[in-house]
Amino acid sequence: MPVSTSPQLSVVVPVFNERDNVAPLVHEITAALRGRAADDGGNFEIVYIDDRSRDDTLAVLTALKAEVPELRVVHHESQSGQSTAIRTGVKAARGTWVATLDGDGQNDPADIPKLIAERARAASDIKLFAGWRVNRQDSGSKRWASKWANAIRARMLRDDTPDTGCGIKLFERAAFLDLPYFDHMHRYLPALMQRAGWKTVSVPVNHRARSTGVSKYNNLNRALVGIRDLRGVAWLITRSKITRTREI
């Protein structure tokens, strides 16, 4: 099956030590998008970014390329973290719009067409459609930590987003690449898009329990890093300036 040289949609998936989740997720993505009309996600590519996994994730991805022509694989030569992996994938993407998924399989690729449908009926100044996990399938401690983190973030940033930590998102590639880059920026995309003058919406999506592997983060690490990042994003917002222009 040939892949267009100019896909309209790029599905970007960062992974680190997810060898057992790679193949099932890739096949779910193709099942969700193949056969659709081009403007409904049917003209797509899948861009996996291996963040220098220590297991054989890269080998599994390389083997999958032979049976999934939409699949592209980018490998980090040094481990760089999720935000950098996402940005690497977006820079490598050829689509005008990008959908992101976490590599652990907890996001449901069947929700990508739902986000695309939301985009089709939305105003042109909405550049981010963020997934909202209304029924999270995580441990009680992780749900509790996320609840408090979201409450503090919403109070400080006023980004009107109930769930910024959800991995499934759909956004315009050019708008994303115009945002300031820093580690962990993927957790603040709604606030950063709004800072740039764009609008964002949250869309309820499915969420699944992790079927294999282990989480790469713990609540304490998230909290310590999050406090510093939150202060930084708040500072960026206070220093932002949007200038409307028109060509004469």
Task: Give an account of the 3D structure.
The protein is α/β, with parallel strands linked by helices and 248 residues long. It has a single domain, classed as Spore Coat Polysaccharide Biosynthesis Protein SpsA, Chain A, CATH 3.90.550. The chain contains eight helices and seven strands; from the N terminus they run E-H-E-H-E-H-E-H-E-H-E-H-H-E-H. A seven-stranded mixed β-sheet has the order 3-2-1-4-6-5-7, sandwiched between helices. Helix 2 links the parallel strand 2 and strand 3. The N and C termini lie far apart (46 Å). The model has no long low-confidence stretch (mean pLDDT 89).
Q: Percent helix among the residues?
A: 25-40%
Average pLDDT score: 89
What is the N-to-C succession of helices and strands? EHEHEHEHEHEHHEH
**Terminal Cα separation, in Å?**
46 Å
Query: Per CATH, which architecture?
Result: Alpha-Beta Complex
Overall radius of gyration: 18 Å
Unreliable stretches: none
Compute the number of helices: 8
What would you give as the CATH superfamily? Spore Coat Polysaccharide Biosynthesis Protein SpsA, Chain A
**Global geometry:** globular
Number of domains: 1
Major sheet, described briefly? 7 strands, mixed
SS-derived structural category: alpha/beta
What is the CATH third-level topology name? Spore Coat Polysaccharide Biosynthesis Protein SpsA, Chain A
Counting DSSP E segments of at least 2 residues, the number of strands comes to 7
- Assign the CATH class: Alpha Beta
Strand content: 15-25%
- Strand order across the largest sheet: 3-2-1-4-6-5-7
GO molecular function, one term: glycosyltransferase activity
Domain Glycosyltransferase 2-like: 10-176
Keywords: Cell membrane, Glycosyltransferase, Lipopolysaccharide biosynthesis, Membrane, Transferase, Transmembrane, Transmembrane helix
Enzyme class: transferase
